[in-house]
Amino acid sequence: MVFCRWEKTKINVFEKLPEPESGKEYTITKVEQGKGQFGEYIRVTLKDNEEKEYSTALWIKDTVSAKSKAGAFAIALGNNPEEWEGKRIKIISWTAKNREIQAIETSTTTKKGKWYKWKHNKNKNIKYIEYIEKE
Prior knowledge:
With about 140 residues, the chain is mainly β. The protein folds into 2 domains: about 25-105, no CATH class; about 105-135. The chain has 1 helix and 8 strands. A 5-stranded antiparallel beta sheet has the order 3-2-1-4-5, with helices on one face. Strands 6-7-8 form a 3-stranded antiparallel beta sheet, with no helix packed on it. A hairpin with a 2-residue loop joins strand 4 and strand 5.
């Protein structure tokens, strides 16, 4: 009988998905935290309209540039990644040191049947919800 000394080692394997592309819209399906060679990161998994999956790693630092991956996501969606799942975004620019993401407005209904629209005010860098009449 052969025993492996690596028996208790846990290996975290994930499929390498392509990076998102400029000009396309995506829905964020998963946000998970991990640790890699260069420190901690947040892995964001996205789906396009054809249900094809993409992912990108956002490296966590004390301060990030507004045009970095992490900075672009924080500006568009806020700095709490736990709230990003299910949000729709459009990639405006996705080249190195020039990343820009736009949150897409979504309308939802409450239990009382009132419609609300989620908006992001880019100038003030805040999110707010506005009541709208049902069309």
